[in-house]
Design brief:
Layout lengths: L1 H17 L5 E7 L4 H10 L12 E4 L10 H10 L20 H7 L3 E6 L6 H7 L8 H7 L7 E4 L6 H14 L2 E4 L12 E5 L14 H13 L5 E7 L2 H6 L3 H24 L4 E7 L2 E2 L3 E2 L17 H13 L4 H11 L7 H16 L19 H13 L2 E2 L5 E2 L3 E6 L10 E2 L2 H9 L5 H12 L2
Parallel strand pairs: 1-7, 1-8, 2-14, 3-4, 3-7, 4-6, 5-6
Antiparallel strand pairs: 2-13, 8-13, 9-12, 10-11
Helix pairs in contact: 3-5, 3-15, 6-7, 8-10, 12-13, 13-14
The chain binds zinc ion.
Zinc ion binds next to helix 9.
Length: 454
């Protein structure tokens, strides 16, 4: 009897040790990575890094008014722990600034890193360091970037005026004493400095051999953890959203590969520090409502048979139109671009209709069409070609925008017991704070900071 009691006590003690507080926290956000996107990715790549996590927890993303969110409202929810209006960069629904978890942790001597594969001044990353009434204040957001004194920025692109914005960013970071390097010179960075890596490209589209999102993630974790520091590192895989907006599943899957590799980088770090590393992988919202109608039809290599993403396919279509090729030839050449041969009568009917809209319509250099024709703002023929391929593969998109579908949150490491029950996106930073042993952090200081800023 005594022996079994001792065993029980030992077991409880072992459990308490395993349920320790994390020293290193990764918050990985797949922008637009809805449940259909994850399901398709799991089908195509069964050995991916998401499979190394426990079963995901469903997470609601609607904004404070119960409407479908944008990346700003959901970014604010994930960064600051409140629901707010669409377009808000860390402002509450009354337009008052709120303090992000990253800023509060920084005040407690945690090291902070912010990395994105798209615009560093776009909604998702900026909610961690800026406070702006709307996400469109691109220059204003850049001017906020040096203020919280974060330790690492991984910069791919600038949203808004790219050239002027990049010059402004470099100026702001230099005056805030950041060490700035390009991707190839990451090894020159020293942990005692504040550091920024600027690649100037959407990282998944880099040429072979260039620095990738996973490389920047590895470097950030190495620099931030040096000298026994605690860290909070946010990594955004931003362009899954762009592929899904365009209803281009090949593009979305390519971006998923890059985001998954960045998750792999976090898992490799965690393998070296298993008792100290908490990894949260989530999405800010679903984009496109990607639905697998018949997964058995999914060709595991469909995404490789597509020769170009939406923009490339559109420019092919525009060139064929300019060359005055007959409609059936244009259709044939474009369908080949996504690996389609032997078009059926039903497919041909739909393609003919879309092609007539394209040939009769005004073609511009970017080839933007009017929303309301059933093809979003995209080239009707290109969208119909993609849809033909999608139908053959047993899936379809339901929207060109965001949807209200709940996303999936994957958690691994010490403190993951705080993420067991269903979540709202605004719960996530509170749960991170609780896992780190400071459950009241955002509730008290987030509000106090908002008050003092009035
Ligand atoms: Zn979007």
């Amino acid at each position: 009897m005594k022996k079994s009691l001792l065993t029980l006590l030992l077991l409880i003690f072992a459990f308490m040790l395993s349920a320790g507080t994390p020293k290193y926290v990764f918050l990985m956000i797949g922008d637009g990575m809805g449940p259909g996107t994850v399901q398709m990715y799991n089908k195509l790549f069964p050995d991916n890094n998401l499979k190394k996590f426990a079963a995901p927890v469903l997470t609601g993303t609607d904004n404070v008014f119960g409407k479908t969110t944008d990346s700003a409202a959901s970014g604010t929810a994930l960064a600051c722990g409140i629901k707010t209006y669409n377009r808000s960069i860390a402002m509450d629904k009354d337009g008052k600034p709120v303090t992000s978890l990253a800023k509060l942790l920084k005040k407690r001597q945690w090291k902070i890193g912010i990395v994105s594969s798209v615009g560093i001044n776009d909604a998702t990353p900026s909610t961690h360091y800026a406070n702006r009434k709307t996400r469109n204040e691109y220059a204003g957001i850049i001017s906020d970037i040096g203020r919280p004194g974060f330790d690492f920025f991984g910069v791919s692109l600038i949203k808004g005026n790219a050239k002027a914005g990049m010059a402004q960013l470099k100026k702001v970071l230099s005056s805030s004493k950041y060490q700035i390097v390009n991707g190839k010179n990451m090894n020159k960075l020293k942990p005692e400095n504040k550091n920024a890596v600027i690649t100037g490209t959407n990282v998944p589209q880099l040429k072979p051999g260039s620095v990738r999102l996973c490389d920047i993630t590895t470097k950030a974790a190495e620099l931030l953890s040096a000298g026994d520091n605690r860290f909070f590192l946010m990594v955004e895989g931003g362009a899954v959203d762009h592929g899904n907006h365009a209803n281009d599943a090949s593009w979305a899957m390519k971006e998923m590969i890059e985001f998954d590799a960045a998750i792999g980088a976090a898992l490799s770090f965690a393998a070296k520090h298993p008792e100290d590393t908490l990894i949260i992988v989530t999405a800010d919202h679903d984009t496109g409502g990607l639905t697998l109608k018949d997964p058995s039809k999914l060709d595991s290599k469909f995404y490789l048979k597509q020769k170009a993403f939406l923009a490339g396919l559109t420019s092919v279509a525009v060139k064929l139109k300019a060359a005055k090729l007959p409609a059936d030839q244009i259709i044939k050449q474009l369908t080949r671009q996504v690996g389609i041969e032997n078009i059926t009568a039903d497919e041909q009917k739909k393609l003919n209709y879309a092609c007539s809209l394209f040939l009769d319509g005004k073609t511009t250099s970017t080839d933007k069409f009017t929303a309301g024709m059933g093809y979003g703002r995209y080239n009707p023929l290109v969208i119909e070609v993609l849809r033909t391929r999608d139908r053959r593969n047993g899936f379809y998109y339901t929207s060109f925008g965001h949807t209200s579908a709940k996303v999936t949150t994957f958690v691994k490491g010490p403190g993951s017991e705080h993420f067991k029950s269903p979540l709202e996106n605004s719960d996530i930073p509170h749960r991170i704070a609780a896992a780190a042993g400071m459950p009241e952090l955002l509730k008290k200081e987030g509000k106090a900071a908002a008050k003092s800023a009035r």
